[in-house]
Amino acid sequence: xxxxxxxxxxxxxxxxxxDLAWFSNGYYSxxxxxxxxxxxxxxxxxxxxxxxxxSSVFKxxxxxxxxxxxxxxxxxxxxxxxxxxxxxxxxxxxx
Length: 95
What we know:
Strand order of the largest sheet: 1-2-3-4
Low-confidence stretches: none
Number of helices: 2
Radius of gyration: 14 Å
Number of strands: 4
């Protein structure tokens, strides 16, 4: 199965994205959000909601600061934990 990828920030333009891409083994997306913020999703992990590409289990909110990218502190979202674990388990099994 091919995972759709969006790259609103390119690794050629930002060393920080290049480093994160290495960590994610190339399986990532970067989406432009509001107010010049971006969301980095590691696609090796499942989505909490299959219909919402912004519901990645492993995600970071990024913003531009002084020619580099910085991260907005992580705030967990209240979601169905049981469903998230079930999705993670299915992904782990390769289904």
